[in-house]
Design a protein that fits this description.
Length: 331
């Protein structure tokens, strides 16, 4: 009997729990330049939910398999492959759909992960930690001791920003909505943790003794982003990578004229596609070194099997979760 795999598929866009199906497909066969990867772990990210709903900018043609992120083990390589070996733990590209038991992938698109890193941690290094790395490297040339301010600091990217900034010698001001997060983020290495409110600028000035802040990171939008912008010095930069509030940026003309602020944005998948292999590894390698030391571990609230796709996406869409929802395969 021929081997088969289970694959999550949606044939129309809509509510994830309603449109997702589990289908059986033949075991993949590698082309000469491909490797067969058996999946180990894949998170359920907000972008995955948006893609299934049809709300993601790069709208996939249906039928499609969700999953922008994941890790797996190479079990077979094509005749021309020399860059990866059987048994290697790898991070997969974001354009193949990782919610499946196995997949054929061009070997040149795989990123080999040091064996010391757990597959679940590896599965979540490509989007959030890489985004955090680029936020701290791509926009403002910061020196050790300088301050960075961010909202939604308890998000996966926010927590990665805290840890990476600490490694690089930067100081972080971390804005959250709930007071119970303050001690938790301080324990993670956040230098200042504050609850978002109307007088945020004064509180930030007091907490930093008026230190200049040149970089603000925004994943909320609306009034929260404006309060971040108001904390920056003349010529400062706000980089947006999310809009959790579903509210647009509000940029008063005065911030442009009298503070000459820059407003930038990052879509990490676009950066990844345009980056050279060397540029990608320049980000991955320091993250791998941190991960080997037990850092950059995304908090996992619950793991599901591929057969539980509907339950997993429903769980992932709940408010106030304490961690990520993850598929684990082939344990």
């Amino acid at each position: 009997m021929d081997k088969t795999i289970k694959v999550v598929v949606y044939e129309t866009h809509g509510k994830p729990a309603e449109v997702l199906q589990i289908k059986t497909e033949p075991w993949p066969k590698p082309a000469a330049d491909e490797a067969i990867v058996v999946m180990r772990a894949a998170p359920v990210n907000p972008a995955d939910i948006n893609a299934i709903e049809g709300k993601y900018p790069a709208r996939r043609e249906v039928p499609a398999t969700p999953g922008f992120e994941g890790s797996g083990t190479v079990v077979e390589v094509g005749a021309d492959v020399s860059t990866v070996n059987n048994g290697a733990l790898v991070i997969l590209p974001h354009n193949i759909g990782t919610w499946r038991e196995a997949v054929a992938v061009k070997a040149s698109e795989l990123v080999v992960v040091p064996p010391e890193i757990d597959p679940v941690d590896a599965a979540m290094l490509k989007i959030n930690p890489i985004t955090a790395w680029r936020l701290l490297h791509g926009y403002v040339d910061l020196a050790r001791g300088e301050w960075v301010i961010q909202n939604a600091a308890n998000s996966a990217v926010g927590r990665a920003v805290i840890q990476i900034a600490h490694e690089l010698g930067f100081k972080t001001i971390n804005i959250v909505r709930r007071p119970e997060l303050i001690e938790e983020l301080r324990a993670d290495g956040g230098d200042v943790v504050l609850v978002d409110h109307e007088n945020l600028r004064d509180e930030v000035k007091s907490a930093t003794s008026g230190a200049p802040i040149r970089l603000g990171l925004n994943s909320v939008g609306g009034d929260s982003a404006l309060r971040i912008a108001n904390c920056l010095v003349f010529g400062g930069t706000v980089v947006s990578f999310g809009a959790m509030s579903l509210q647009p940026l509000k940029i008063p003309t005065g911030l442009l004229i009298f503070k000459d602020l820059r407003f930038r944005g990052i879509w990490i998948n676009h950066w990844y596609d345009k980056a050279t292999p060397a540029e990608r590894m320049a980000a991955f390698n320091p993250l791998f070194e941190m991960a080997k030391r037990g850092l950059l571990k995304a908090k996992v609230e619950k793991s599901y099997s591929i057969d539980q796709a509907g339950e997993a996406v429903t769980d992932a869409m709940r408010d106030k979760r304490s961690g990520k929802i993850v598929f684990q395969f082939n344990p």
